[in-house]
Design goal:
Number of domains: 1
Shape: globular
Order of helices and strands: HHHH
Oligomer: single chain
Helix content: over 70%
CATH architecture: Up-down Bundle
Strand content: under 5%
Structural class: mainly alpha
Distance between the termini: 44 Å
Number of strands: 0
CATH superfamily: DksA, coiled-coil domain
Amino acid sequence: MSLDVTRAEHPAHEARQRLEHARASRLAQLQALDESGQGDAHLLSEQRTAMRRVLKEIDEAFARIDEGTYGTCQGCAKPVPAERLEILPYTRYCVACRRRAL
């Protein structure tokens, strides 16, 4: 295996690790919500919906890694800064494009 291939795979490996961590965290939070059963039923439902939406975004990010488009903003097609991907590994947009979408 060449050094260039190893370098190219390293960011994808790190991204997968961050996504796996994000998925595990969201699944744990979803399980905790399901087990608590206490509190405002509407609020719990909203929280479950939000967790499921993030899990879907995480799955879509895994697909972008496989497609080779991970880390490219879907709004402007520029690279998403590495710092943003570290914080929000499943993001599809750079900060500027995300702000425009809101």
